[in-house]
Amino acid sequence: MSTASTHHAAVDLGAESGRVILGTLSQGRLSIEEIHRFPNRMGEKDGGLKWDLRHLEGEILAGLKKIGDRKIPLESVSCDSWGVDIVYLPKDGSPAKDPFCYRDERNEKIFPKVVDKIGKEKIFARTGLQFMPFNTLYQLAADAESGRSEVGQSSAFLPVADYLNYFLGGRPASEVSLASTTQFYDPKNRKWAEDLVKEVGIPTSLLPEVVPSGSLLGKISAKTVQATGLPATCQVVASCSHDTGASVAAVPAEGKGWAYLSSGTWSLLGVESPKPWMTPACAEAGLTHEVGFGHSIRLLKNIAGLWLVQECRRDFAKQGREMDYGTITRMASEAAPLVTLLDPFLTAWNAPGEMGRRIADYAKATGQLVPTSDGAMVRACLESLALAYRECLESIEKVTGEKIKTLHIVGGGSQNKLLNQMAADATGRTVVSGPIEGTAIGNLLIQAYGLGHLKSHQEIRNIVRDSFPIELFQPLSNPLWKEAWKRFQTLRSTKGK
Q: Looking at 85, 104, 143, 243, which residue is catalytic?
């Protein structure tokens, strides 16, 4: 480890917001500072729900300029984002068009057609990925079916964070953790599953180079230097471009018997494994294989996550009840426990809008009490997530044959102490929360690794443990959770998985 201080910038993009975080690595410790925060925007445009790419580009440059204005000798920068969505790179060098958002309704329509044509068994055997209608494979199929003009006018496509690394000056390449979210990356053979791309009607010439976590992509461009005032020597690094990959790399875990939960808009719960588990039992459990730092396998499941609460909050605001998350969580803590349960695995929750009405409709359809207050509605979301965590942990144990004693919760959702305690109570396992900024921390430390300042994944995790506080939540005995678990299992079996 280098003894001199080094400075790195993480551009961490979530569905709700983005941040530019400055990290300083010194004497085996990392300190972080939020430099710039901005909202992310999706909206209807040109016949679909799309992200505002020019907005993202402008806000990222504005954040980096704040670092440049302070004359900080920044060594590197790296972007991370959510998975699956892609940006096409025009052959003529013109600005890329706004990418579709994974929540666009077109995915639900094309998904069954592709699965019927290729077959679930073949897709899973090639990719090991959970079947979600918004996976990139189905987005490509929708592009081909609709005759989307970018397909024929582009030299390649890149997942969102990889595109933004390219925008800053790096070469066009997809870092493996983000590539693995597409459902056409083969984790066994460590390359694109080109046959699947061909089957949905997209030329394989559009597939970018895949690079490992920590790869140097080149120095920032002259345009970026001019816009930000950063040193021309600043490197663009592909850290873990997938936000979950970055956050899992920063889990301060030791030894065996632990699982992670990256808690944010999505809840992504899983274990780190040296090998894939692409078995029928794994497919039956709905588990997915994403690639992490060092080409480790993240065997995990996607759950609706705090999106449920975010959408409730938006719904309340539209009805004139504007509240922050602290207020909403307090109200949930005061509501009666374990009255109404939801199935957070249902894809029906994925669409934006009218979450309160949809929860009420679900409660009626399943013969449960409709939540009578804002707090009761949010409590139903949180308790249901905690029970979903139990189901995930048990299904992973069944597939791997390995017991899980500890659940590490990282990311912004780890600040929700009510949900952390519910997770401990529902699962009967010790919950360790923190670091809150797991994604940005992982991003920053993988940059340092790529530049040679750190030598191993264990060194990365040691630095996280030495630099950031964690909090323990022990399970409390409450017979209500046992009864709720039985009801939850009934909901899951009647609605399907």
A: 243
